[in-house]
Fold this protein.
Amino acid sequence: MSEIQEVKLPGVGVRYEFETTEGRRIGVISHRTGLREIYVSRLDDPDEFKRVLGLSPDDARTLSELLGATRVAQQLAALQQRIEGLVIDWLHVRADSVYAGQTIGDARIRTRTGVSVVAIVRGEDAVPAPGPEETLHPGDYLVVVGTARGVEQAVELMRAG
């Protein structure tokens, strides 16, 4: 798997680059607006890039699905292996959960379990770094980080309510 280099572009977003097995460098600029631009280096000059494509947020999600969209999951798994005791998991908010329709603050997940909700995946959308005022909807997936015991407690909390 290629190493991804990340460069913050103040006021714009982030540029990600990696080198392909054929020696080309691929760059993706992820704009704060959600636009993604794809650049490819020339074969004879790896430092010279040409813009190939601009993608709306919907286009980018579609393309990532076509390409497998497993990179994030693989990186999270690798991160878990590097940091002893860290567990990252996805908790389903079931329709029968007492917390469906209530906020993260109402559930007091962090207070009760020590686990942090770092994102909510809601259908095709994601809510990164949700605050305590964010409502939990049936069908949501909470991306949580904590200890193994804390995640187990969070699973039970969301089941039992």
Q: What stands out?
A: The chain has a mean pLDDT of 83. The chain has two domains: 5-69, 84-160. The radius of gyration is 19 Å.
